[in-house]
Amino acid sequence: MPELPEVETTRRGIAPHVLNQTIKKVIVRNPRLRWPITNNLAVILHKQKIKKITRRGKYLLLHCDKGFLIIHLGMSGKLSIVENKLMARKHDHCELIFSHGKILRFNDPRRFGAILWTEAHPHQHPLLKNLGVEPLLKNFHKNYLYQQIQNKNVTIKQLIMDGKIVVGVGNIYASEALFLAKILPTRAAQTLSLQECDRLVAAIKKVLTRAIKAGGTTLKDFLQANGKPGYFSQKLLVYQREATPCLDCGNPIQNIKLAQRATYYCFSCQK
Fold it and tell me: Which CATH number fits domain 4-124: 3.30.420.10, 3.40.50.1220, 3.20.190.10, 3.30.70.1050?
């Protein structure tokens, strides 16, 4: 499932091609995504201009003249920039055709994504209004995390994956950040010290920043807007490295199920 680095990579990939461009036509081939594509989207977006593209958590926000297009990639969604002459493929459910000839195409085999329209501020949309802080911004810091872990009866890995506390720290990045911070993923969240919170916040920021620079992580479905895979999978320290030597101590990486999610860690390095 595309997480924050993949969505941010997508945002950066499509922005140069669609910013300040006018939508000439919208084609909806299949409106039945996780939430149905907004009715009359072709009429709504006709001749509107994309003024800005931002991200909130795992949602892409296209700021138009008269409102906002909210896009979620779901489990297998991809946005790509293609030329007008390129024929649509299977699972190409929606596309925005711009006056300069390029197309923003949404492909989603599993149809868990979303393309929604709102004229209100998107941060107040029901899908976004309860999201936690952005991990790469200054308001995600050790004191914030330390406050959030108080009296929380969950593991630290579950807590940092809770989108109501901090957005975008998916399963891969939670395992990687906890390894960098030398904290066992099964630790009770409320047992972390302020110093450990400081290490974990720094590790989350570092892992996400590295992943964005590498174009995200491709394990199965994700492709960048230019069709290339994300290369952070080549830099993973623990995720999907079960039984291989830890890069720090040489002991084998362990894999357990935690809240139904594969969780990788080093029993020697992480306490």
Answer: 3.20.190.10
